[in-house]
Amino acid sequence: MVDWFKRKKKGILGEKKNDIPEGLWIKCPKCSEILYKKAIEQNFWSCPKCRYHFRIPAFDYIKLLFDEYEEFNAGYRSSDPLNFSASKKYIAQLKIAHKKTGLNDAIVTVKGKINGHQLTAAVMDFGFIGGSMGSVVGEKISKAVDVARANKTPLLIVSSSGGARMMEGILSLMQMAKTSAKLAQFSEEGGLYISLMTDPTTGGTTASYAMLGDINIAESGALVGFAGARVIKQTIGEDLPDGFQRAEFLLEKGFVDRVTERSEMKEELTRILEFFA
């Protein structure tokens, strides 16, 4: 065997290896392009090739939209209200989600300014147990409505959720009625509610506050629906249209008012706020 061909610790020819730090490159789930993380971040966390919008934490989305903001009701935490047999597992899930995201639950509520316009917002975080809607999410949205009413500002809810949090049972499902009632009261008083749906917005979230906006906006390519496409196909026994439950399909059918790229979202919201001001 030729000595120079022997693999050595430093490399095949004895040269020092150049280690590439982890996390610098990301594979796009849609087009499979290998992308430089910094380039995606500079492109509003969307793929420059296929326009796929990556899911981002709540505070990252807030920073994309707001010039300045102040968080409120940050201390709300979920507990184990049902105390069912698998409660220890649920408590462990909450602890893991808190450590992973730095949040106390799947939503952040803030008040601040977008291009000089006052706005109250509730922004969901899919990273916290799939953005599931439990008692805390429902309560914080209700409190955000109260703050918008008190300060006479428009309300924005950014949805990113797999639906109701089944570990809280009926208490989770109750949040659908609770948030809907609060928004109805807000509407009766002349409040402006803008609903922004990101990928994914599904289940009980879609069946309540996500689709109740005076103006419903969806991010380009976002999955928006109640039941999953597979469940619907099995139920009706028919193939579904191309792009079913995607934002562009919903726009075509009249379920959303606008489909907007994330890079243009701040200006889109500014135009709406200016018009209704």
Per-chain topology:
Blueprint: E1 25-27, E2 34-36, H1 37-42, H2 58-65, E3 68-71, H3 87-101, E4 107-114, E5 117-124, H4 135-151, E6 155-161, H5 169-188, E7 193-202, E8 215-219, E9 224-225, H6 229-236, H7 247-253, E10 258-260, H8 265-276
Parallel strand pairs: 5-6, 6-7, 7-8, 7-9, 8-10
Antiparallel strand pairs: 1-2, 3-4, 4-5
Keywords for this entry:
277 residues; alpha/beta; 2-enoyl-CoA Hydratase, Chain A, domain 1; 8-stranded mixed β-sheet; two-stranded antiparallel sheet; 8 helices
Would you write up a description of this structure?
This protein is α/β, with parallel strands linked by helices and 277 residues long. The chain folds into two domains: 21-54, no CATH class; 55-276, 2-enoyl-CoA Hydratase, Chain A, domain 1 (Alpha-Beta Complex), CATH 3.90.226.10. Helices cover 34% and strands 19% of the residues. The protein contains eight helices and ten strands. The strands form two sheets. Strands 3, 4, 5, 6, 7, 8, 9 and 10 form an eight-stranded mixed sheet that branches. The chain has a two-stranded antiparallel ribbon with strand order 1-2. Strand 4 and strand 5 form a beta hairpin.
The biggest sheet amounts to: 8 strands, mixed
Cα-based radius of gyration, to the nearest Å:
22 Å
Query: Termini separation (Å)?
Result: 80 Å
Poorly predicted segments: none
Instruction: Provide the CATH superfamily of the largest domain.
Output: 2-enoyl-CoA Hydratase, Chain A, domain 1
Count of helix runs? 8
How large is the share of residues in beta strands?
15-25%
* Count of the domains: 2
CATH class call of the largest domain: Alpha Beta
Tell me the CATH architecture of the largest domain: Alpha-Beta Complex
CATH topology of the largest domain: 2-enoyl-CoA Hydratase, Chain A, domain 1
Helix proportion range: 25-40%
Mean pLDDT: 91
